[in-house]
């Protein structure tokens, strides 16, 4: 199906002035490209931030022990507070009306981890059975830890994806033994790989579960050695059923811990949802800056379209006069010039989208960011930009239609 003669004529008219048309397109291309790149990088940043926050638990409150490493300072602190305990987690669960499950975690300071198939430099933690659900961790093979494992002090472990590959290369680890320091453990599960791409988010460490060995918290407390005056647990996650109350609940937990710990500043509260909101606030500032740059580019592009259209009117006065003399109406002249403007705007929109996509991936590759696309906003933005360019062409088209045919022919 061929192009209609009227549209072909408009394309040929612009093609005869290739350099001028290209220079006119540049403003639109840069403006649309900036908007497309901004949306691609912005959407990628939003999804990446959401994925990272979900790894912490979007509806969780995380309480982290922050006891000093200095022994004298630690003794002074312990005179007022025994440190973070499971009793603190239960108290927080009892105080908050919308609190759900909680999970405790204790880091193990291990020196060696190996099996009959290999060794690895991995981290180890004792965790409550609810830890995997609250941290959005999925078991790929075998099973997760259970309450029975915890109650019976079972010598079992769940491995992260990377740890399983290093400790049991080329073989299925389920049911096999590994040794963590002096303790033998039987592997009952392997976690699915979850590559977050970053080691931390807004200053909070994440993503280490891939290179991790998880054992039941009670088993860890009973089977491994700990230093005197250590916290019973290093952190706990508390799920809140109503996400709108996370901020108030966090303040309430802070007051509760302050009372239970005698005013000692030995805990830190982390609310992943607030981290996400802070990240999005920063992203909005970035979007405003990029949007302003794009708006300037579009303004320049619109002025460029107006300039070329006015130049076309001046150069084609005789053509306009002849058309009017043989019976063309003013509306016919307006449509003729607007058709050329549509070709320019449509071309600028298509090239701008392609340029914006290339720019987004270039920025992502240089800065280490991710790119994601939401087609409808991009198409709407490109369409709006094209309409802005088209609006700038209305005045020149009306100027062409207002020319007196006789004066136009004489002027030529």
From TrEMBL:
Transmembrane segments: 21-42, 285-314, 341-367, 373-395
This protein's UniProt keywords: Cell membrane, Membrane, Transmembrane, Transmembrane helix
Bilayer topology annotation: Multi-pass membrane protein
Subcellular locations according to the entry: Cell membrane
Source superkingdom: Bacteria
GO annotation, cellular component aspect: plasma membrane
Domain MacB-like periplasmic core: 21-243
Pfam families, per database record: FtsX, MacB_PCD
Gene Ontology molecular functions: transmembrane transporter activity
InterPro entries documented for this protein: ABC3_permease_C, MacB_PCD, Macrolide_Exporter_MacB
Domain ABC3 transporter permease C-terminal span(s) in chain numbering: 292-404
Entry's family note: Belongs to the ABC-4 integral membrane protein family.
PANTHER family on file: ABC TRANSPORTER PERMEASE YTRF (PTHR30572:SF4), MEMBRANE COMPONENT OF TRANSPORTER-RELATED (PTHR30572)
Protein name stated in the entry: FtsX-like permease family protein
């Amino acid at each position: 199906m061929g192009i209609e003669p009227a549209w072909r004529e408009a394309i040929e008219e612009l093609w005869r002035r290739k350099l001028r048309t290209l220079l006119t397109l540049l403003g639109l291309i840069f403006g649309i490209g900036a908007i497309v790149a901004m949306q691609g990088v912005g959407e990628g940043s939003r999804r990446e931030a959401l994925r990272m926050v979900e790894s912490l638990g979007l509806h969780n409150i995380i309480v982290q022990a922050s006891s000093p490493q200095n022994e004298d300072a630690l003794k002074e602190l312990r005179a007022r507070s025994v440190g973070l305990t499971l009793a603190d987690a239960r108290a927080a669960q009892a105080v908050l009306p919308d609190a759900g499950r909680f999970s405790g975690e204790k880091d193990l300071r291990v020196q060696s981890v190996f099996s009959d198939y290999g060794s690895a430099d991995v981290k180890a933690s004792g965790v409550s059975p609810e830890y995997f659900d609250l941290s959005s961790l999925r078991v790929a093979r075998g099973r997760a830890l259970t309450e029975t494992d915890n109650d019976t002090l079972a010598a079992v472990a769940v491995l992260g994806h990377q740890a399983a590959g290093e400790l049991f290369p080329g073989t299925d680890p389920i049911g096999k033994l590994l040794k963590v320091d002096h303790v033998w453990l039987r592997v009952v599960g392997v976690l699915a790989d979850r590559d977050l791409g970053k080691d931390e988010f807004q200053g909070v460490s994440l993503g280490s579960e891939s290179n991790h060995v998880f054992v039941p918290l009670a088993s860890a407390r009973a089977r491994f050695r700990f230093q005197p005056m250590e916290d019973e647990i290093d952190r706990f996650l508390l799920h809140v059923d109503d996400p709108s109350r996370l901020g108030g609940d966090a303040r309430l937990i802070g007051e509760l811990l302050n009372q239970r710990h005698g005013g000692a500043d030995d805990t830190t509260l982390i609310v992943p949802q607030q981290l996400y909101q802070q990240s999005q606030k920063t992203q909005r500032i970035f979007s405003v800056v990029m949007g302003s740059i794009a708006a300037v580019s579009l303004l320049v592009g619109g002025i460029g379209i107006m300039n070329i259209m006015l130049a076309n009117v001046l150069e084609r006065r005789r053509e306009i006069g002849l058309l009017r003399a043989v019976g063309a109406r003013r509306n016919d002249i307006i449509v003729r010039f607007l058709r050329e403007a549509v070709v320019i705007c449509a071309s600028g929109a298509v090239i701008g989208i392609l340029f914006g996509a290339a720019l987004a991936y270039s920025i992502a590759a240089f800065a280490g960011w991710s790119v994601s696309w939401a087609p409808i906003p991009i198409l709407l933005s490109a369409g709006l930009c094209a309409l802005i360019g088209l609006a700038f062409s209305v005045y020149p088209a009306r100027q062409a239609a207002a020319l007196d045919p006789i004066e136009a022919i004489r002027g030529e």
